[in-house]
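Fresh eyes needed here. I'd like your take on this protein's tokenised backbone:
***
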Amino acid sequence: MPAPSTSSSVARRPTQVPPHRELFWGFVIQGLVCAGMAVALVRLIPYHRQQQQRNQVVQTELERTETQVQQLQTQFQRTFDPQQQPRLVQKATQRLQPQQRQVIWVAPQ
């Protein structure tokens, strides 16, 4: 096998762009990509804030509704509890049971 000559074994890039131009265009493209991402981010910030405000409104409404549901559940349990029936009838009719006495508070004179 013949020994390769040094001039023929070195692969040269004929008519290619010099490395400093490749770097320049690489930086330009990267800069454009970064600028595009920055513009997209700036456009998304108001949308994100709007979504946070909506989320806050929904969260407040949820807390209010949960409180209302809890009150209604308590009222429902109290209304349909067999042990509470006499008390509820008394409250609705203002009648006392036979073993109870009515207390009337009088202001001291």
Remarks:
- The radius of gyration is 42 Å.
